[in-house]
């Protein structure tokens, strides 16, 4: 869940499309799944991810999620959906 687009600590501004893409990424979706959801190409999603990484000064999804959480851009408590796996 994206909760802000900028912080006092570092001025990180994501575009509305970057927020939309990143919201789906932090839910655990692949680039192709995001592309299917947004009715665009995987290349477009990867372009937006590259811009997000650049703005957050990171190089992968895990670092991006961690950095965004540290900056207060996302609340990861609401990002992951529980799975319905049976317990033994």
Structure class: mainly alpha
The CATH topology of the domain at 16-75 turns out to be: Arc Repressor Mutant, subunit A
Order of helices and strands: HHHH
> What would CATH call the architecture of the domain at 16-75?
Orthogonal Bundle
**For the record, what CATH class of the domain at 16-75 applies?**
Mainly Alpha
Largest sheet: none
Unreliable residue stretches = 1-9
Number of helices: 4
Distance between the termini: 31 Å
Beta fraction: under 5%
Over the alpha carbons, how many angstroms does the gyration radius reach?
13 Å
Round the mean pLDDT to the nearest integer and report it. Answer: 84
Shape: globular
CATH superfamily of the domain at 16-75: Winged helix-like DNA-binding domain superfamily/Winged helix DNA-binding domain
Number of strands: 0
Please estimate the helix content: 40-55%
Quick overview:
With 88 residues, the chain is mainly α. The chain has a domain at 16-75: Winged helix-like DNA-binding domain superfamily/Winged helix DNA-binding domain (Arc Repressor Mutant, subunit A). It has helices at residues 16-26, 31-38, 42-56, 61-70.
Provide a descriptive summary of the structure in words.
By secondary structure, the protein is mainly alpha-helical. The protein has a domain at 16-75: Orthogonal Bundle (Arc Repressor Mutant, subunit A), CATH 1.10.10.10. The chain has four helices and no strands. It has helices at 16-26, 31-38, 42-56, 61-70. The longest helix is centred in the middle third of the chain and has 15 residues, at 42-56. 16% of the residues are buried. Residues 1-9 have low confidence and may be disordered.
């Amino acid at each position: 869940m994206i909760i802000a687009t900028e912080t006092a600590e570092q001025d990180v501004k994501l575009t509305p499309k970057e927020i939309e893409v990143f919201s789906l990424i932090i839910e655990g979706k692949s680039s192709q799944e995001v592309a299917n959801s947004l009715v665009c190409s995987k290349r477009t999603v990867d372009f937006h991810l590259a811009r997000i990484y650049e703005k957050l000064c990171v190089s992968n999804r895990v670092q991006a999620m961690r950095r965004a959480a540290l900056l207060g851009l996302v609340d990861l408590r609401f990002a992951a959906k529980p799975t319905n796996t049976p317990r033994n």
